[in-house]
Amino acid sequence: MEVVNAIGRRKAAIARVFVSEGTGKIIINKRELDNYFPSTILQYVVKQPLNKLDAIEKYDIKINLNGGGYKGQAEAARLGIARALVKINPEDKAALRAEGFMTRDPRVVERKKPGQPKARKRFQFSKR
Questions:
Q1: Which end of the chain is less crowded, N or C, counting CB atoms within 10 A of the terminal residue's CB?
Q2: pTM to 2 decimal places
């Protein structure tokens, strides 16, 4: 099997995912998964599509992550892995979609407007 790649995005984070057959290693930015995400919750989030398909030991995954915070990066990696697994085996798409792993979360930070302190917050109004 050749290397299959996919892109996952969440908030400002972008994950480029490369999946190949292997023993279950996950490398993120040239570091091990548990080294890059010390939190077990975020490690679980990244592995969710693999756990759903019982494919945790089947593939080696290399991920290039940039932008965003650690939560956004973990969810971007999850989307990228799910998309790559569907490229490998299209029959898995229904199972992954049912869990919500195939949906790009469109929520991003609203831009700051000029003349205001934040996106929606206004400066204090003074009558006098």
A1: C
A2: 0.90
